Amino acid sequence: MSDQEDMEIKQENETIADIDAKNVKSEEEDIKDPSKISSLKALGPFIASKENSRNTVYLSDVPEVCKDKPCMLGVDEAGRGPVLGPMVYGISYCPLGSKKALEDLGCADSKQLTEEKRDVIFNDINTKDYAKDCIGWAVEIISPSTISTSMYRRSKCSLNEVSMDSAMGLIQQAIDAGVNIAEVYVDTVGPPEKYQEKLLKRFPNFKITVAKKADSTYPIVSAASICAKVTRDHALKVWKFPEGLVIKDNAFGSGYPGDPVTKRFLTEHIDLVFGFPRLVRFSWSTAENALADKAYEVEFDEPDSEKPKYAGTKLTKFFKGTTKSGEVIREECRFLKQRHLGNVLDF
């Protein structure tokens, strides 16, 4: 090998090392501010810094163009059916004339995209200038605890209601942040007509379209779906068990009731008294059946329905004794009565 070839190889190695160093520096900058999601790598640390028993809402910075020009906004969710993990609602918005940016990103039916492709698109939305200059997004991570307690509380709140409230809440937060919304496209929950009517009642000034499989029809809904799915995927990857469980690589499956890995997780991680860790939506029939098969039965004492007996004089007795005409009739004081004493008005 000649000296010149040796020098060229050294220069090439130095160039690769410089690129690697820049990439490391860029990654460190991405997670420097844990309150900001500026790339895919910043997503996990942001979620991990939050309390996973509570809901978390994140709004990206609003591009200036979205404040000035009329925008379309898409809404979709991820994780509605699983028995494990949160449900995530997402919105994405951009000016009506920025459809090409969505096409260049590759926003299509998110269910047809691989997890790796969704990650790439999510990263591009937050790092590519042509995307982040005209596209904004927001998500709400709805905890399993919130879902289960909503469905079990005395005045029950169905999963559809939880979903609609989240969607409307995210739209409202976009409005409050200054997004100039003109059109809204939503992947339906339940009958599209009823959902659309509810949204129009709340947001009468927008053109609203609610449709089945909207993420495969409208690229802006697909972008919202990608944001929601990627957020849920990473929420599961960084899930921390306050119960002290250690699950290698968080290998509890997809979370769907039919997944054998998920079924095994449910059967192997039941506390016989307290039930499941907070990762589990205990209101799901899959979880209820697993508890019924293995956990202890607990009986609660019913409160005594009889009113406590009290032998003394009732307080209300002292407020009685008025005739219909208004005349006050009072019973003579027992102390005076026993001593044959009475009131003297004249001497």
Essential attributes:
six-stranded mixed sheet
Describe this structure in words.
This protein is an alpha/beta fold and 347 residues long. 42% of the residues lie in helices and 12% in strands. The chain is built from 13 helices and 6 strands. The chain has a 6-stranded mixed beta sheet, sandwiched between helices. A hairpin with an 8-residue loop joins strand 2 (71-78) and strand 3. It is elongated. It starts with a helix and ends in a 9-residue tail after the last helix.
What's the SSE pattern? HHEHEEHHHEHHEHEHHHH
In round numbers, the mean pLDDT is 84
Distance N to C terminus: 140 Å
How helical, in percent, are the residues?
Answer: 40-55%
The whole-angstrom Rg is 32 Å
Structural class: alpha/beta
Q: Characterize the overall form.
A: elongated
* Cross-sheet strand order for the largest sheet: 1-4-3-2-5-6
Number of helices: 13
Q: Identify low-pLDDT runs.
A: 19-28
DSSP, total strands? 6
What fraction of the residues are assigned to beta strands by DSSP? Answer: 5-15%
Can you summarize the main beta sheet?
A: 6 strands, mixed
Question: What is the fold's blueprint, element by element?
Answer:
Layout: H1 3-30, H2 40-48, E1 56-59, H3 64-68, E2 71-78, E3 87-95, H4 99-105, H5 115-127, H6 129-132, E4 136-142, H7 144-152, H8 159-176, E5 181-187, H9 192-202, E6 207-211, H10 219-237, H11 260-268, H12 285-294, H13 334-338
Parallel strand pairs: 2-5, 5-6
Antiparallel strand pairs: 1-4, 2-3, 3-4
